[in-house]
Design brief:
The chain is an all-alpha fold and 124 residues long. The chain is built from three helices and no strands.
Amino acid sequence: MAKNQTRRITSAVLGADREAFDALQGINGYAPANQAYKTEAVKAARDRMDDLLREATQAEAAAVAKRDAATAAEWEFHNVMLGAKVQVEAQFGSDSDEFASLGMKKKSDYKSPTRRRQESQPTS
């Protein structure tokens, strides 16, 4: 029995197990003392594993599709909000409280440009 049964088994090990099971089915007269290891029990365990792996793969595909749909919905919402901000700016102006309520900075809040005074540099 394995030590850590919470981690996934590598595909190489599972492939070797499948090949060994195929060989086990070909053994005439196989009659284990422990009935838990009969060919039928091993086949049932393999079939259960295959069913669960198939369901997991389908669930992962569904999750990826849902995640892609959610991403598309996020972008749709973002683009609609960008358009709404433009419409609020067009209707109320870029210096309005309505425009600022959308998280935008009012035009009057920007610092107006000033000339920097040039300091005279010492001549050598």
